[in-house]
Structures are given as C-alpha cells and as structure tokens.
C-alpha cells in the first residue's frame, strides 16, 4: 500500500490531502532532516496525480519551510523541530487519527476501537515517562479513554500534578 494513498471521494482537495500527508510524514520522523523526497514525477505516478498538482504541493511545502528544493538535485526535508505547531501532542493526535482510520478500514467500529485502546492502556499499566506509574490513575485514564468524554480533563489533571 502506498504511503501516499489519497481519498478521491473526500471534500478535501487532493493537493491538500497530499500536502497534509507529507507534513505528517515529515513531522512524525518518517522523513528526517536532509532526507530527499521523491521526485515530482515519481510522486505524481505513485499518488496517481497530475505532475502540476504535486509541483504545487512541493512549492507550498517549500513556502511553509518544510522542504527546500535544490535545482537538479531534488527536494530535501528541512529541520522542522522549531516550527510552530510541531508538538508531541499534535503528532500523537495525528498518529491516533491514522490508527483509527486504519482500524475502520479493516472493519472495526468505534466502540471496538475504544475497547482495544482501553485494554492496551490497562495492559501497559504505566506511563513510561512516570517510571512505575500509578495503576489506579492509569485505569481511570483508560476508562475515560474508552468513553472519550472526560479524557482531556484527566490528562490535564495528571499534567498539573507532575
């Protein structure tokens, strides 16, 4: 499966979908600083898009500071660690959205996905950043995550207590 698969039925324009996908791949570390991106022609063929569409995406990414084009050499990923909006929370949200989308593509429904997440969180038993962790607070967080409502409140309370 191509990492550049786009949804032709979406109301989001294809060039925006591709741009967002590339931003995700860059900010998630799939492409690292200095990595060369596929050529415009190569990406156009892989994503089944017009050459001009991919060229527009690359120009937009360059204008936003995600990539730098070097004549006759290609497009290279810039250091985005200091870019506003590139945070671990946004990255985690993006990864979670990708995970949920993939689960749904495999036929899972929302309640099953919530239950699986709650089970995994309970099995892990601890936040790796907290050492041993507190099983009661992790169970509370997992329960809240399974219902989604209240998860943000619990997450904020835990951050405040650190």
From TrEMBL:
CDD domains membership: WHTH_GntR (cd07377)
Pfam families the record matches: GntR
Domain of life: Bacteria
Transmembrane segments: none
Sorted UniProt keywords: DNA-binding, Transcription, Transcription regulation
SMART domains xref list: HTH_GNTR
Domain HTH gntR-type: 12-80
Gene Ontology MF: a single term: DNA binding
InterPro entries: Tscrpt_reg_HTH_GntR (IPR000524), WH-like_DNA-bd_sf (IPR036388), WH_DNA-bd_sf (IPR036390)
Signal sequence extent: none
SUPFAM superfamilies, sorted: Winged helix' DNA-binding domain (SSF46785)
Cross-referenced PANTHER family: GNTR-FAMILY TRANSCRIPTIONAL REGULATOR, HTH-TYPE TRANSCRIPTIONAL REPRESSOR YTRA
Name of this protein: GntR family transcriptional regulator
